[in-house]
Amino acid sequence: MRILNISAQKPDGTGSGTFLAQTVAAQAAAGHLTAVICGMDDGAATDALPAQALVFPVRFNTSELPFHVCGMSDEMPCAATLP
């Protein structure tokens, strides 16, 4: 099966990001082709995801997106902007 996972959060460091990383790891271990679209700061690593997952990060703090990742709280493990 081909599975696309989408999250506005980076794939580690937050509850939803940790859940995303573990879900993708379980999908890959079951033999599924997995892909992830996720929001993260420019330069942040995606190594929390399995190597076989296709990762398409949406990079914030760049010339194209010159602001922080949107978050639900100002108490994030990375710089965030309230919506």
From TrEMBL:
Instruction: Look up the domain of life of the source.
Output: Bacteria
Entry protein name: Uncharacterized protein
The species this protein belongs to is: Paratractidigestivibacter faecalis
